[in-house]
Each structure stands twice: as C-alpha cells, then as structure tokens.
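Lab meeting, action items carried over

1. Structure of the two-component assembly. Owner: GW. Status: complete.
Input record:
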Amino acid sequence: MSLSVKEKTVVNWVLRALKLLICIFVVVASISSRLFAVVKFESIIHEFDPWFNFRATKLLTETSFYNFLNWFDSRTWYPLGRVTGGTLYPGLMTTASLIWNILHKIGIPIDIRNVCVLFAPIFSSLTAWATYKLASDIKDTRTGLLAAAFIAIVPGYISRSVAGSYDNEAIAITLLMLTFMFWIKSIKTGSILHTIGASLCYFYMVSAWGGYVFITNLIPFHVFCLLLMGRYSNQIYVSYTTWFVLGTVASMQIPFVGFLPIRSNDHMSALGIFGLLQIVAFGNFIKKSYSQNNNNSNSNGNLKKVMVFSFLAVCILGILLLILATYLGLIAPWTGRFYSLWDTNYAKIHIPIIASVSEHQPVAWPAFFFDTHFLIWLFPVGVTLLFSELKNEHVFIIVYSVLCSYFAGVMVRLMLTLTPVICIASSVALSQLFDTYLNFYDLFKFWQNGSSSRQNSTNKDTKLNFFKFLSKLIVSGSFIFYLYIFVYHCTWVTQNAYSSPSVVLPSQTPDGKMALIDDFREAYYWLRMNTDEDSKVAAWWDYGYQIGGMADRTTLVDNNTWNNTHIALVGKAMASNEDRAYEIFNELDVDYVLVVFGGLLGFGGDDLNKFLWMIRISEGIWPDEVNERSFFSTTGEYRVDSSATQVMKDSIMYKMSYHNFPYLYGENSGGVDHVRQQLIKPEDVGDLKRFHEVFTSENWMIRIYKLNERDNEGRDSEFSVFKNKSVANDNNSNVEGVDGSRRRRRRRRQQYSLLDASELRI
Amino acid sequence: MVSIKLVLIKLLSFILLVQISFVLGQEFAITEAQRDKNGIIDVTDENFDKVFDLVQSHSFGLFLLFTTNTVEMGCRTCVEFNPEFDLIAKSWKLDHPDFISNTDPDLKFLFGKAVVYSPKNIPDIFKLFRLQHIPALFYFSPGSGLHQFESFDIQHASGPERANQMLKWIKRSTGISDDTDFVIHQQTNWANVFVTCLIVFCSTLLIKKNHNLILKLVRLRWIWGLASVIFILFMISGYMFTKMRQVPLAGADRNGHIIYFAEKDFQNQFGIETQIVALFYGIIGALMIFLIKIIPALDPSNDNTTSSDSFDISNTSIRSNSGHNNSSSGNNNNNNSNSNNNSRTDSVDFSFTKKSKKKNSKGNIHINSPYLVYVLAIVGTILLYSFFAAFTHMYSIKQSYPFTFFKLTSLLGF
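Predicted assembly:
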C-alpha cells in the first residue's frame, strides 16, 4: 500500500477530526448522563456530606480564603464546636469558588448553588480526558478513546458524580486519573516536567480527598514491584524521587494533613521506598563502574550476591525500624479506617461507628455487575493481556487492579477507585479484539486487486475471503452488540438508582405519575422559620449536615464523626427513658429533638432502624447504662409492637417515633408500622411528659419535639403549674392537627407507594 | 403394737425409698453429665422431668441449649454454636467435676442440650417452650418454674466474641463473682500444630534443596499472571463478602430444597454464588482470550500479524509491538514481503507461509484449513454470547433486570 505524502496528510487530518469528534461526543455523554438528577428532580444538593461542602463553599464565597482556613464553627458539635478550617479538605470548595469568581468576573452572575450542582458533571468530563491520555499510554489511542467512552458513562463512577452530588469524590477521581496519567508519562520518559505535573496533581488530590493515601501507597508499591523485577532504571529514579520530595512537601501545606506524611504509618511506605531507591541507585552505580573495570564473571556473581543480601537486609532493617518507631510513639499507627481494610473484623469490634456506615460494608457480586456491566468480565481479560507484554506502565495497571479489586470487595465506597482501572483494562482487551476483528484492510486490498486482475483470482479465493469477512463480522458484531447493551444498562442504572437526591424522595401515584415526598425540606424549612436562631437541635448524626445546611440551626453531632463520645452521648439520650433523656438534653442545652420516622410511609432508612447502632455505639462508652440485649424481645428479635421490651418502650426514640401514631387510623385499632410490618397499639406508646410535639411533617417522616422548659425555680415541667398549662395548650393544638391531617393522611397513604430506587442504592 | 411397728417400718421404708429414688434421680442426671466428655446432659422427652427436677428441688442451675446437629434443618448458627457451647461446658466440667463452684458451695449448675436429630421428629420439649427459633439458650435458676428463664441472644455476636459474651452472661446470671472460678480452657489443637510444623519443615527443606527451581518458578511470568487474574476473579465475585459476613455455602427454601441463589436479594449472596460467578467470568474471559490470542495465531491466512500497522499511517497512534513480535520483527518483515508478493492467490502459498510462520509463532499446533479457524471463531463467539446471556439471566435472579439477552423483544421496545 503506497500512499503519496499528500494522501497521507489527508488521512491524518481525517483521523484527527474523527478523534476530536469522538472526544466531543464523550464529553457530551459524560455531562448529559449525569444531568438526570436535575431533569428528574431539580437543581438541588444531594444527600448529606454535600450539604456541608455547600455550606463551606458559601462561606468561602462570602468571606475571604483566610477566614475560611481559620473557620471555627460553633454551630456544630455544640457545645464543643469544630475547628472546621483545619479539619477539612479544602480542594473542592476552593475550586468551586474559583469557578464562581471567574464566572462573575466575566459577567455571568451564576448562583453558587448551581456551580456546586454542576461541578461533578463538568469534572467527570475532565476525568474522561485524563483516562483517555492514560489508556493511550498503556496501549494506543484506540484504547484511549474506548476507555474515555467507558469512564464517561460507567455507573460505578456516575454513582458519585451525578449533578448535585457535590462531594470530595467528584473532584478526587479526576485528580486521581490526572496524577496517574502524569506518573505513567514520567515513568516512560523520565522527564522531570511530567513528574512535576504528577506531584502538583498529587498536591491537589491531597487538598481534596482523604483517599489520597491510596496514591501515596500505590506509586511506591509500583516502584517496589519494578525493583523486584529487576527493572531499575534512571527514569524510575528521577521520577520517583522528584515526585516523592515535591509531593510530600506540597502535601504538608494542607492544614488538615500537616505533619502526617512524616508522622503516620500510612505514609511510611513512600518514605521507605524512597530510601530503598537511593540504595539501589548507589548499588547500580557501583556495579556499573565495577563491571567496566573488570570483566571477571565470577566477581560479578559475587557482587550480585552482595547486592541481593544488602537489599534484603535493608528491607528487614527498615521494617524493624518502623515497628520500633511506632512502638516508641514517634510514628502514629495506622488509622482505623485504613486498618479495617486489612483486618476485616477490626472495625466491627473496635470502631462500631465505622462499621455502621453503609458505605463501609462489603460488596456482594451483583453490585459489581450493576456498576460496570460487561466491563467486569473484560477486566480480567485486559489484565491477562497486559501480562503478556508487561512493560513498566503495565505493571502499574496490574498492581492497581489487583489491590483495588480487593479494596472494592471489602468496602463498597472503594468501588469508585476500582472503576477507572476496570475501564482501562477492559478497553485494552476490547481494543485488542477490535484490532483483529474490526480490521477489514485485507479484504479491501483483495477487492482492489481483484477488480484489476479478476481473471487471476480463483473462485475459491473469493469464497475464502467471504468467509473471513463473515467470521470477522460476527465476532465484532457481537461485541458491538454488547457495547450497545452497555449503553442501555448504564442509562438505566443512572436513571433508576443513582439520580435520587435522597433529600427529596421519588414516589409514584397509582396512575403512574411521579410524586415527590418532600418531608425533609418541609421540616428543615419549618425549623428555619419558626425557631430561634440560636436554638440547638438534637438529631442523630446522619442529619447533622442537612440541619446545618438547610435549617441553619446548631447541631450536636454531624456527619463529620470526629468525636465518638459526643455521638454516643446523643445515642444514649435517645436510648434512655424520658427522665434521663431530659436530663442529658438539658445538660447539652438542647431545645429541639428531631427524629426521622418512616413507619407511615415505609421509608426504611429511619431512626428506628438505625436505633440499634445508636445503642451499640453508646454501649461501647457506657456499657453499664446501655445494654443492647435489653432492647431485644425474649425471642431475641428486634420488635416494636406489644412484644417489645419495656426498656424499648420507655426509650424516647420509641415514644417520639410513635407518639400519637396508633390513633391515626381510629381510636383503638392501632397503627401498622410499614417499615417493620408490626402493629403498634395505643397502650404500647407511653405519654410524653417532658417533651411536646411541635412539628410533624406531611408524611410524618420528620417529627420535632421541644423540651418543656423548667420554671423560674428550676423545677421540672411536671411540677410546674405554668408549664402544665402550656403543655395542655400544645397538646390541644396537636390533637387538632392530628385530626385534621388524619383524613388527608389516609387518602395519601393509598396514593403513594415508595419507589424501590432508594433501596437499590447501597 | 406390731401393727404400729409395721406401719412405722412401712413409713420409714417408704421415706427411704422416696429418698433413694430422689437421690437416684439426681444421681442419674449428674452421672449422665459426668459420663459425657463435655459434661453436657442430652435432654430428651423422656429424661426432661428428671433433669428439671434437679432445678426445682435440688438447687441446681441449668443452662439448656435447644439446637440441632443435622444440616437438613438448615440452621447454620446451630452448627456453628454447638462447639462454642461444648467448649464452655467442658471448661466448667474440667474445673468442677461435681459441677459445684469452687468458691461458693451453694452455686451449682449443669449444662444440657436438647437436640433435634431429624426434621421429621421434633421432640416435645421444643413445643413445650413454644420455640420459634433455634438455637436458643435458656438459663433456669435454681428453684425456678418451667417458664421462668433468662435467654441468651445467640444471633447477635459471632466468632470468638460470642463465646466470651456467653461466658459473661453465664457469670452474670449465675452470680459467679470470682473471675478465676470459670475460665475457658481452649483446647490446643495438637494436630494443627504438628501439621504446621511439618509443613514449615518440609517447605524449608524443599526451598533449600531446590532453590534454583523455585527461583525459576518465581520468575515465571505466567504464574504471576494466573495468580493475579484468579485473585481478581474471586474478588469481583464477592469473595470478601462471603468471608466477612460468613454466609452459608447455600441456602434452603421453605420446602427444604437447596437453593444456590439468594433470590431478589441484591445485597446478599451465598458462598456458592461466588464460585459460580467466578466460573462464568473465567469461562467468558477464556473465550475472549481464545478469540484475541489463539485465533489470529492459528489463522494461516493471517500470517502478517502486523497488517494493522500498515494501516496505521497516522503517527498519532502509538501502537506497541507485542513482545514476541519485537524479537522476530525481522522474520515478520520477510513474511510481509512474501505474502505481499504472492498476494495469497494460491493454496500452495498457504503451505509456504505456514512453514515460515512456524519459525516465529509460539504455538506448534497448526490448522491447514482456514475455514476451520473461521468456524472456530464463530463458535467461540456463539459460546461467549450464550454464556453472557445465561449470566444476565442469573443476574436477573438477584434483581429485576430488563436487559436479559434471550428476551430480545424487551430491547426492541426502546
């Protein structure tokens, strides 16, 4: 095949244009598939953590950067407060506010909320670009384009980057891919420029997500594997040492990280490999100068032995030193979260608060297929193919996939870090397949030759070529069909499972129309409008960020679970009887208590279902006062109906959840709890003497109670004349409210049935 | 007088008899417990009265476990819990051969087990206590009635923690204050120790003798490749889930039939599911490797493996040469020119290219007819399709899923 120079340039331009077109399509797909959440619901911040990030971003745009870094938040963790500026990863907020500032400078007055909502989709398109570059370095541009297309729509990544999911992960995966991309480039070329890119991206990553520890350990591990394989080269030396020094110094600039990189065990492997690399480089230098001087093979063998033994000795010595330093307290031991990855029972026994988070549960196999569809079986194929070549950058992908498939199996949230490598490895496999089967060049040539010399070609040859064409068509066609299904699968998953903001719950009316259950915002808005600005709201920590963000009231505990004891205190109050709880809440200055109750609607994630964790966490601190077993019925079950234990019925969590609930369907019939499918009878639910109901949302999902105030002489409400009156008033108004809403409720109950979507998500 | 004497004697002997029978009853249960190597009374319908008599009239406490030892009942916790209970009971017996506390002579208790041996024949005691779940562990304090018992929550904890919790509970409910009075005597498993020693010894010996061979093995690439791919396969099939949650290998439905898949349960699985899924992924992956690696190597007409390169005029695509290509690139170029010259118009050419190919291709197997290769490729594709289709159906057991393959109509609906 001979092409003229002119033809070649034309072909080149066509290829470039095609590539650009594909890239544009990938970007469009990656952004638009993440907009389901906005289209189906509205432009709203999702879930829990994003509300805190949103609140912090707002503060950053309103005040200055230094104020933000020095931010002491007295409105959370009351009465302790939180040194928020020093305990957060500022990368996300600063990026968002930077974008907002730039947009304002060029005259686009966009709301900061919209910047935050659209933040993740925009950055996911950047991720696609970085993955394209990374995969191109692994095999070729065809692989890169496939990988970019995969990462753009794969549900495993979309799960954390839909519009509105304004979380650290939204930017962190982009930075993860960028760091790896630069790292691979620098390993290949040994260029310091690329390494500086890797360290800067690493610094950005450290500023954005706690998961940066993954990079801190993966890159050294890659280098270690290369050393063990005897692949030491100057490129590796230059890129690793530059990355380590620059990256470590840069990462220490983040206030929350501080001196951790030299003081904690999580980071020690990077330091150890740095030292090891110096020794290996030194040994290599000696070997080189030695072998130049004499060519005696025997002495070379001796040198090799010395090298191997000193290598082993250094490794062992380093590990011993590490253990000693940890023992002496010079280096902090591994953090609980990190440790629980290796010893899988660790968290369950020692830190129930980590074990209680659903993100930290192990993954059953359906979740893998759900999140990646057919990429999941392409993934091992890709790894196998990489083994057959095994260049330095392939070792990286292999190490990454082996480690991360383990991590993802242990913790569902780490599925997020596995997804990019699945995309890359499977695109290697698929592009290799397409290289063979989607390549009809031979046939073109045959037809071309055939037309000129038809008389020469026999009939048999035509048949042969036809069969070849057919088999290629069938093989590649079947895979194109899988790709087609893959797109449908991804769209389906994104639409059904990952686009719910979980602040607003989707539900369906009997005629199939979509209806929204908006109890959370209703309740938070009520708090914002009807309570004193300084009032303190006690709720389980899951709702801390939302109360702070939406209701703007002071909370006791929130999703930044830095103080286990404080959380346990709230759990203890919820688990104890009314008098004791009143005492605890009074000591904490609490004005309102908020509980989430799903019994009317069948909302499974309510406080009564989380109640066991409250008990468990507080039992860990006060084993004498709270006893988990006393909440189980005699048959050892978790019951809430008449067979519940007295301790259970006395706890204020029970009382507040079911207060007035049995009367909802008539005086004596009792109410059926639709989450636990049990009948609650009026005689089971005791009266509240020291709290009174002030608000119950439309579907009873949020119930807010106020503590009865003590009178001037400090006596409890029970004995207070004035208080009794006010309680009576409150009760009256409540009864009316309940009566009024009862009729509405019965109607509504028939109308709505909760969608399963919220349950699909783990 | 005589009659009075007679009556007295009768009365005395009656009292004696009663006492003897009392003592005998007590003796029976205790000797039963002493005879058992774990110190556990096997409580059945027949001897239950006698055993319970100990509690009511002889100030013995009783820990009664309702359990099963058959797999047919489908109670995994029972099977797991039995050895823990045995261990505790045995430890108690070891320190207290007559089941009386060392510190407090009034404190005495026994361990008993009521066992379901087959699902068809459930003893009446289980009905007596209206049990809905087994295993259940009850404590009858001395002198208590039939339904005055404390129960221990077995379901809650697992593993070594559970045995400790049970011990704590036992101490609390019986009121043993001295910590040394009741300690668990963990049995040293000598067989394990011995086997470990043997393995360590043998392996060191092997390494010392064959260190060259082992070094070679360690350096073999395909061993590492196989190991990591198998590792990945198990990890993505939920192996860690089965390990951490300690799920059973398979379950049983209401009728007692074995089921392999936890139906409609997206977040849960059985142990065997991991193996099935890993097997499916493995088969599909192997077919894929077959298509990518083996078919092109077999194909006699496809001798110039670098044909795609000649199409890559664009310098933008950096196609990496595979390892063996690199080593024999010279040969390949020869082939290229050969085949290009002859244009593969004649079947003789195939034999020629085949010969030259034999030199550089790694496989020794060769198929003369190119048709067979094409057929193989198509068969591989169809197999892959059917395995994937079957897999999607398997997936639809776990979750209602619209994209199962055999129902292609559902796709046309879009």
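2. GW to write a short summary for the group page. Key points so far: The beta strands of chain B are 40-43, 61-68, 109-116, 136-140, 150-152, 251-252, 258-259. DSSP finds 16 helices and seven strands in chain B.
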